[in-house]
Design a protein that fits this description.
Blueprint lengths: L7 H9 L3 H23 L2 H17 L10 H23 L15 H17 L3 H12 L4 H8 L3 H18 L3 H6 L1
Helix pairs in contact: 1-2, 2-3, 2-4, 2-6, 3-4, 4-7, 6-8, 7-8
């Protein structure tokens, strides 16, 4: 089956008709952004790869059910986000105890400072529930509107707005205040 691509719409039409090459090309075009959303939820490269594989297989098998109520890209975001949230919930049920927290001592080099910053960011992101992390990534990280994210996540716009606001508040509240920084 030869895939002849003349535009995005044609490529989507070919994918909907079951052309695996066209579907693969769409995945290649959108993979980075889709992967970013999944990673923001599952927080592991290995788990991201597993979730992406599962989501892409599900999407390909479900192409015949795609109703075109939304764009194919939005539909794929929805499948990937749902797969990531399901995976995260499954893993959380399996986990008996969280891994021991690394004891990070401030260093003098910028490399140490960068590592500490990443560790602090990771711990703040872990305080945010997986679904809200995904919503935050879609809105803040990828620039989607609340309406677009509501469509992707199949939840009301107000729920998206409140979860994103709560996630931002968690991040903001975890930062030391300017007054505290000056006292060091």
């Amino acid at each position: 089956m030869a895939t002849r691509v003349t535009g995005q719409h044609d490529l989507e039409e070919q994918a909907r008709s079951g052309d695996p090459r066209a579907f693969g090309e769409l995945i290649r075009r959108w993979d980075d952004d889709l992967r970013g959303v999944v990673w923001s939820v599952v927080r592991s490269r290995t788990d991201t790869d597993d979730v992406m594989q599962t989501a892409y297989e599900k999407a390909f098998r479900s192409l015949g059910e795609f109703r075109q109520d939304a764009s194919m890209r939005t539909w794929l975001y929805s499948i990937c986000l749902r797969a990531a949230i399901d995976h995260s919930r499954y893993e959380n049920r399996r986990r008996h105890e969280s891994a021991t927290v690394l004891d990070t001592r401030p260093g003098t080099s910028s490399t140490s400072d960068a590592a500490i910053g990443r560790t602090e960011l990771a711990s703040v992101l872990e305080m945010i529930d997986p679904e809200s992390r995904g919503l935050l990534m879609l809105t803040v990280g990828l620039g989607y509107s609340f309406d677009e994210v509501a469509e992707i996540a199949t939840i009301p716009r107000g729920t998206v707005a409140s979860r994103v606001a709560r996630a931002k508040r968690t991040i903001r509240d975890s930062q030391p205040s300017a007054a505290t920084k000056g006292q060091s």
